[in-house]
Amino acid sequence: MTEKLSRNERIKEASDYLRGTLAEGLREQITGAITEDDAQLVKFHGMYLQDDRDLRPERTRKKMEKAFAFMLRVRVPGGVLSTTQWLALDRVARDYGNHTVRLTTRQSVQLHGVIKSNLKPTLQAIDSVLLNTIAACGDVNRNVMCNPNPYHSRAHGAALELARAISDHLTPRTPAYREIWLDGERIVGGEEEVIEPIYGKTYLPRKFKTVVAVPPSNDVDVFAHDLGFIAILDRNGGVEGWNITVGGGMGMTHGEPDTYPRTADVMGFCATEDALAIAEAVVTVQRDWGDRANRKHARVKYTIEDRGLDVFRTEVERRAKVKLHAARSFAFTSTGDRYGWTEGEDGQAHLTLFIGNGRVRDVGPGTQQLSALRQIAKLHEGDFRLTANQNLIIAKVSPERRPAIEQIAAANALLVPSSGLRRNSMACVALPTCGLALAESERYMPDLLDALEDTLAGHGLSSDDIVIRMTGCPNGCARPYLAEIGLVGKGPGRYNLYLGAAFEGSRLSKLYAEDLDHAAITERLEPLFAAYAAERQPGEHFGDFVIRAGWIARTSNGRDFHANVGPRRPA
Ligand code: HEM
Ligand code: SF4
Question: What would the pLDDT profile of 331-359 be if each residue is shown by its tens digit?
Fold first, then answer.
């Protein structure tokens, strides 16, 4: 049995609770990298070893080592950051990183370009403002997301509380992080049950992602995640309990039909006091039932496809000692953010800013966004909230600060963009840092949007909300299979085009065309936009229209995702 385990399982097992030889590797000055095994373990500490892929050819020519640096992902449960925390992240990005702060599609912050010798000072600065990077990557429960807009004040408060409770409960307990990065004292010995009571020695078979949604907004993309809680609201705007979703996930591999994206199933309803027990039970069932031999088949979605939802639910109920109720009805209306000013039920004002692909940096006059947010953080008395769409909310703005904050945002192109497509756009990082990227994503998206905005304007569709997402490879970090227009990198300058997902995030898209370059993408979308403008029904979203009008088949979920590939109506 054990000989079948994947390599990562052996690495975890031998790591002494995620220590490996990281401490020694950090002291090793001859290379900017760490060993291969440690590179797997360091993910559990919230870091990825990367190299600047733009510099690869030149460095190879000069027979130099790759330009190694680390990406650090900071855990921000529910996306809420104090301004002090923001200022600390801004500082480390400029002192040790590549002078940018990257807001992610999962409400975390990424810092890129941190070289090995700067890792400890960076993590110490992060720790000094009560943040950390533990379990931001790796085979564990990652950053827990939650609708960040305190607009629905009571429901949001309950959702944030649950997100934080789950995050705390499922954070790995190993002292390795403190020992290695923060010069904590080495704690030896201890029984497995005591060190990692939930995970054990080998943690989970694969990454695990949890979100909390507050309808009618599905901004967190609850159906894309392993575990989700959907707030069921009572008449007074409070939370009556939670629908639980399981088995969503995006990742797949081109040309491997046994891998596929999948939308989560609604498993039932529970009261707030049972939610934590359910979350733990879902994690431990996956710990014991998940596939530890094949990492491409190791997410909860495959466990549920293989065993069936009923069997999975029964085991969760048994372990949690909770009987789930029938799921309650709920309705989502969108996955996007509410831009601009919103005023909460409690009278507080919040300003949602647009951050193009989540990349905060100083570009030049009119787009000094990193400096602008620093300025805002210094004068703002409320907090900052990261959204699941790579945007930022300046939350709880006092009436006196409102004009100044708005003025700084307006002067740096941080207010809502004019086109409905750009308002609903996301792109993953991809090149030059991501080692898995097959094509550009974040750096190409703005150009593609420029081109598509021209086409849309020609059909009078500029202000229509259409969701577009791009990734540089099929792993799906920007959840492209849940976008009405999804573009997934296939090779340099080439993308697969997916269509037909639901605007509110409940239905996946399907493959429409393969291997398109920039000209082909715009050419293939043009007739669709023309038809949408001419033939749509009132209020019909683009993703629904392309199915009704026969451009693409409606997707089937799970293992049937790849069936029925290709367009139906001739282009
Ligand atoms: C299945 C395999 C996956 C692998 C191996 C993978 C790996 C990676 C890597 C290496 C990066 C770092 C890129 C960089 O910053 O340079 C990254 C970024 C990221 N990934 Fe993934 N990823 C996978 C799937 C997903 C999925 C399905 C999601 C979300 C639902 C996700 C969420 C993110 C987020 C939020 C980032 C940060 C940057 C962004 O906002 O795009 N990943 N991923
Ligand atoms: S989708 Fe692929 S290219 Fe984009 S960040 Fe994720 S792993 Fe990298």
Answer: 999 999 999 999 877 778 999 999 999 99
At 396, list the tokens: 């709880």
- Residues in Cβ contact with 491 at an 8 Å cutoff, skipping those fewer than 6 apart: 438, 439, 515
Indicate which residue's Cα is closest to atom 18 of ligand 1: 477
Q: Is 251 in the pocket of ligand 1 (CB under 6 A)?
A: yes
- Tokens at residue 558, please? 């799970």
What is the model's pTM? Answer: 0.96
Q: Which of 473, 479, 490, 510 is catalytic?
A: 473
Between the CA of 49 and the centroid of ligand 2 the distance, in Å, is 14
Place of tokens 């996930």: 249
Ligand 1 atom 4 nearest Cα: 475
Cα angle vertex 552, ends 549, 554, to 5°?
95
- 428 catalytic? Reply is yes
Q: Are strands 485-491 and 468-471 parallel, antiparallel or unpaired?
A: parallel
Strand bridging mode 109-114 / 227-233: unpaired
Which one from 75, 142, 422, 423 is the annotated catalytic residue? 142
Instruction: Output DSSP code: residue 323.
Output: P
